[in-house]
Amino acid sequence: MAATIASPHMTSEANGFLGLGGLQLTPRGRAVMLVLAMLVSAVVGLVGTQAMASGPGQPIEVRVHTVEPGETLWELARGVTAAGEDVRDVVAELRAINGMRTSELQAGQVVLVPEE
After folding, report:
1. Residue 67 belongs to some domain of the structure
2. Could you list the mean pLDDT of each consecutive 10-residue stretch along the chain, which spans 116 residues?
3. Alpha-carbon distance values, 22 to 15, 26, 27, 75, 80 (Å)
4. How many domains does the chain have?
5. Is residue 114 classed as helix, strand or coil in its secondary structure?
6. Is the dihedral of CA 35, 41, 42, 43 positive or negative?
7. What is the rounded distance in angstroms from the CA atom of residue 57 to the CA atom of residue 97?
């Protein structure tokens, strides 16, 4: 039975990380790596700024309104719509202010309505 002795050239330490032991970058290679690193950083920075949440909007004055039987959100919106403003936008704003998924109202429901 013969025994094998590993030579120092066959160890993974001699090959370094990923088998690239002893590999050195030229000045041109270093410059290319630097430019690539800067480009990746710039892209990450640009994408990161777009993903940031914006701060809270301007505060608005509201009044509390109790819904009467037969009253609709569209009627409430028409009552507070400014000249030249689209009623649909006001309905969407009312839904957002009150956390509503639909524009359905129930008699006795309390909603927040912007001051006129």
Report:
1. yes
2. 55 64 82 91 72 68 93 93 92 93 93 86
3. 8, 13, 16, 78, 75
4. 1
5. strand
6. positive
7. 12
Residue 100 is part of which domain span? 62-114
In a domain, residue 70? The reply is yes
DSSP 99: T
Please report whether residue 23 resides in a domain: no
Single-letter residue type at 94: L
Distance from CA of residue 61 to its chain's centroid? 28
Domain at 69, CATH number: 3.10.350.10
- Give residue 1's pLDDT: 53
Residue 87 lies in a domain: yes
The answer for residues whose C-beta is within 8 angstroms of residue 77's C-beta and 6 or more apart is 87, 90, 91, 94
> Which pair of structure tokens corresponds to residue 20?
């690239």
**What's the pLDDT at 41?**
87
CA pair distance 105, 112, nearest whole angstrom = 12
Q: Is 81 exposed, middle or buried (0-12, 13-18, 19+ CB in 10 A)?
A: middle
Structure tokens at 9: 């050239």
